[in-house]
């Protein structure tokens, strides 16, 4: 996946109200990050990793397609990923006020009721209940330090 420039990255966390019809205002900086996309909105799917929504621009869809295309046609894993990634994606368009309507099946998957958290992940973002953000495990700081050490470690073959 080609990395987004800092000004088009999804950064920070934002909490917004969601109404009974599923309308929620997307954060203004996320909307600005998506301005270059053909869809005036974003793509969203139920995460296969948990009870939240995975969202992003057209580059997220391109990335999914590139990953899946590495598998042979008619491969069981390819068909599974096509179904659960591409087949579950919903394009959500902004209205004139920068809101999107999150369809009921997506709201149900992520348990979205009153307030939602938009959590930037750089290239993509997550939508989850504002009180449902994954709690930091007790040893998370140590895990973060260990992950950073992986980034600092020499790359195989001498590349750095």
Which structural category do the helix and sheet elements fall into? alpha+beta
> How many strands appear in the DSSP assignment?
8
Shape summary = globular
State the low-pLDDT regions, or none. Answer: none
Name the CATH class: Alpha Beta
Strand content: 15-25%
With helices defined by DSSP (H or I, 4 residues minimum), what is the helix count? Answer: 5
In the CATH classification, which architecture applies? 3-Layer(aba) Sandwich
The description of the largest β-sheet is: 6 strands, antiparallel
User: Taking strands numbered 1, 2, ... along the chain, how are they ordered across the largest sheet?
Assistant: 1-7-8-4-3-5
Give a description of the structure:
With 160 residues, the chain is an alpha+beta fold. The chain has a single domain (6-152), classed as Transcriptional regulator MraZ domain (Chemotaxis protein chec). It is 31% helix and 22% strand. It has helices spanning 28-33, 58-69, 76-86, 104-110, 140-152, and strands spanning 13-17, 23-25, 41-46, 53-56, 90-93, 99-101, 115-120, 125-129. The strands form two sheets. A six-stranded antiparallel beta sheet has the order 1-7-8-4-3-5. Strands 2-6 form a two-stranded antiparallel sheet.
């Amino acid at each position: 996946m080609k990395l987004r420039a800092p000004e088009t990255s999804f950064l920070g966390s934002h909490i917004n109200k969601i109404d009974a019809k599923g309308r929620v205002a997307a954060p203004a900086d996320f909307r600005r990050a998506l301005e270059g996309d053909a869809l005036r909105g974003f793509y969203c799917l139920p995460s296969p990793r948990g009870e939240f929504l995975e969202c992003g621009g057209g580059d997220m869809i391109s990335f999914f397609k590139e990953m899946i295309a590495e598998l042979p046609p008619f491969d069981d894993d390819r068909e599974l990923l096509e179904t659960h990634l591409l087949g579950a994606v919903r394009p959500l368009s902004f209205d004139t006020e920068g809101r999107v309507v999150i369809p009921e099946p997506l709201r149900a998957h992520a348990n979205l009721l009153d307030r939602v958290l938009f959590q930037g992940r750089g290239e993509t973002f997550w939508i989850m209940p504002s009180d449902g953000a994954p709690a930091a495990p007790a040893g998370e700081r140590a895990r973060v330090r260990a992950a950073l050490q992986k980034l600092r470690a020499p790359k195989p073959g001498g590349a750095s």
